[in-house]
């Protein structure tokens, strides 16, 4: 008798594309990454990464291929040793209070958004983030695919904020926000900025963003010289906060959910038309463009030795140094005759560039 054709094919993991063991072709079958997403572990792409780390098992065996089919009614699917079950997808709108964190993990033990949903008994996570010091509308769900689409700039779901700032920004300053300001991450740009009232020596403005960078609104107003005193998100796409009290949450209505999905589907088919349409905004500023960061301009041909660049920008000024009597002479072919000069370094302390044939030796300086 001969041994098995492939002795390594002992069933120590599930890697073959198709169905997992004991899983027939039934209406209750799911692609593994889709099932994990429905169980609230994240988007399908995030779940694929979890599978590749070996933290997901099916019937006790580690899984290598995220594309297998599983039947959670007949098979045991576990993540870090905890059994997962298909959950009913839920969608909530929370009026997040100040001081509550959007992260699901906080070693310091501070209050998190998911702590406000303790009685729901499902694995939830917020769509995007609101700063700890910010408040307002936050969508919370266990639908990883929808959450990933809502947070992605490609789908252009606009966020509307009511912002209170110290002082009264001029129209010129607000136009700066519309035109865009460059930061380390790229160009930050608002879709719209308009006055919404005043209180004492502060102004209220309504700001619309196409995407959300870390503390974007606060950093934009700091750049134009106005401190943000309060920040509240009042709308996320077609979803409005309305008169919902701080700390309260409600389920999305069927109409609200259908409207969100309709916008996602429409924007998926139509690519963004520049940063105002919610593009990534991460392109680096072009030299000389409006809003580009100021700094020392490199001369053309930088990166090459100045004497090889052959441009006026690379060698903007040349000073002719009188050659001492004991310095080497240059022949017609450009070669040296004689020994090294006894004078040592020149007054500048820099080495001189190689002279052209038949010309006197000159010192080249870069002033930039």
TrEMBL record:
Compositional bias ranges of the Low complexity kind: 343-355
Superkingdom of origin organism: Bacteria
Compositional bias segments (type: Basic and acidic residues): 298-307
Biased composition (Basic residues): 1-11, 287-297
Record keywords: Isomerase, RNA-binding
Residue intervals of the RNA-binding S4 domain: 30-92
SMART domains xrefs: S4 (SM00363)
Pfam families the record matches: PseudoU_synth_2, S4
Any one GO molecular function term: RNA binding
Name of the molecule in the record: Pseudouridine synthase
Organism for this UniProt entry: Rubinisphaera brasiliensis (strain ATCC 49424 / DSM 5305 / JCM 21570 / IAM 15109 / NBRC 103401 / IFAM 1448)
Species classification: Bacteria, Pseudomonadati, Planctomycetota, Planctomycetia, Planctomycetales
């Amino acid at each position: 008798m001969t041994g098995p054709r492939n002795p390594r094919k002992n069933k120590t993991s599930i890697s073959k594309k198709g169905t997992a063991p004991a899983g027939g072709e039934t209406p209750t079958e799911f692609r593994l990454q889709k099932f994990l997403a429905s169980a609230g572990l994240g988007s399908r792409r995030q779940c694929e990464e979890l599978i590749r780390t070996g933290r997901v098992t099916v019937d006790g065996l580690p899984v290598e291929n995220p594309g297998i089919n599983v039947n959670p009614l007949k098979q045991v699917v576990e993540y870090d040793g905890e059994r997962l079950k298909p959950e009913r997808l839920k969608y909530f709108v929370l009026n997040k209070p100040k001081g509550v964190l959007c992260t699901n993990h906080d070693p310091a033990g501070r209050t998190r958004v998911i702590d406000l949903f303790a009685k729901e008994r499902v694995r939830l996570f917020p769509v995007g983030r609101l700063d700890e010091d910010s408040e307002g509308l936050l969508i919370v769900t266990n639908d990883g695919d929808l959450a990933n689409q809502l947070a992605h700039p490609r789908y252009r779901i606009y966020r509307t904020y009511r912002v209170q700032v110290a002082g009264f920004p001029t129209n010129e300053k607000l136009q700066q926000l519309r035109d865009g300001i460059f930061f380390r991450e790229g160009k930050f740009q608002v879709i719209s900025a308009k006055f919404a009232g005043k209180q004492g020596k502060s102004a209220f403005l309504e700001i619309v963003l196409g995407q959300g960078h870390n503390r974007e609104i606060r950093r934009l107003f700091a750049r134009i010289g106005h401190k943000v005193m309060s920040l509240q998100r009042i709308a996320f796409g077609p979803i409005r906060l309305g008169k919902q009290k701080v700390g309260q949450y409600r389920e999305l209505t069927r109409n609200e959910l259908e409207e969100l999905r309709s916008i996602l589907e429409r924007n998926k088919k139509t690519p963004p038309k520049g940063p105002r349409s919610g593009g990534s905004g991460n392109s680096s500023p072009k030299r000389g463009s409006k809003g580009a960061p100021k700094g020392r301009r490199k001369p053309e041909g930088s990166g090459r030795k100045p004497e090889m660049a052959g441009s006026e920008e690379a060698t903007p000024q040349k000073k002719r140094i009188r050659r001492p009597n004991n310095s080497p002479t240059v022949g017609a072919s450009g070669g040296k005759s004689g020994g090294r000069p006894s004078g040592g370094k020149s007054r500048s302390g820099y080495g001189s560039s190689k002279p052209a044939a038949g010309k006197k030796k000159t010192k080249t300086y870069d002033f930039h």
